[in-house]
């Protein structure tokens, strides 16, 4: 049993190198996968299942092919692709997961999430998150025309960049107390998440004793994935340009 985790690929038409690298990952690296977890921000933006990002059809077919050969594919929303819906997920043969869930791995149970919900020091972002995750807001957004949705998405991204430029790394990272609370609430000693673009394996202490927080990396100059099997887990990077 080999399980892979990726997040924060931020696929977009302006970065065909990321598309090629993810294609390489799917068709080469992950061919032995029994499970593949996509932990959010796989796409730079997603304004609805009726408006998929152009140029990614081959990737979608590769995900479906992986599913068809027996790999279970799971999708979890990130802060940029929270509007991915059941239509798209079903089309790639995947299952849509709740925003946090406890799963069983060869190394034991693990709590998985995108990770933005742990950035509780950034109160402005948490308010924004609550707004865009509200079903009523999402329904109203999806009811807009494609042009209107594109305009709103553009405004939200620009506002996000402006807010981010003014904030310290401390504010935009996870809150340690929130991490420990999440582990304690789930009686778990392993947390896997993305979002912060700070790939690392952190040793912490929870009510369960010595615990671990694995942070997946974002794909830019390097691609990142977590590989889990019976021998343990390994956070692996590779050069995007060489994929």
TrEMBL record:
Mn(2+) 2 binds at residues 41, 79, 114, 195. GO terms for cellular component: cytoplasm; extrinsic component of plasma membrane. Its main location: membrane. It is found in: Cell inner membrane. Substrate binds at residues 79-80, 122, 160, 167, 195. It catalyses: UDP-2-N,3-O-bis[(3R)-3-hydroxytetradecanoyl]-alpha-D-glucosamine + H2O = 2-N,3-O-bis[(3R)-3-hydroxytetradecanoyl]-alpha-D-glucosaminyl 1-phosphate + UMP + 2 H(+). It comes from the Bacteria. GO terms for biological process: lipid A biosynthetic process. It is a peripheral membrane protein. Its cofactor is Mn(2+). SUPFAM superfamilies: Metallo-dependent phosphatases (SSF56300). Mn(2+) 1 binds at residues 8, 10, 41, 197. Residues 1-199 form the Calcineurin-like phosphoesterase domain. The keyword Hydrolase applies. Pathway: Glycolipid biosynthesis; lipid IV(A) biosynthesis; lipid IV(A) from (3R)-3-hydroxytetradecanoyl-[acyl-carrier-protein] and UDP-N-acetyl-alpha-D-glucosamine: step 4/6. Binds 2 Mn(2+) ions per subunit in a binuclear metal center. The keyword Repeat does not apply. Keywords: Cell inner membrane, Cell membrane, Hydrolase, Lipid A biosynthesis, Lipid biosynthesis, Lipid metabolism, Manganese, Membrane, Metal-binding. Its EC number is 3.6.1.54. One of its GO terms (molecular function) is UDP-2,3-diacylglucosamine hydrolase activity. Belongs to the LpxH family. This is UDP-2,3-diacylglucosamine hydrolase. It comes from Neptuniibacter caesariensis.
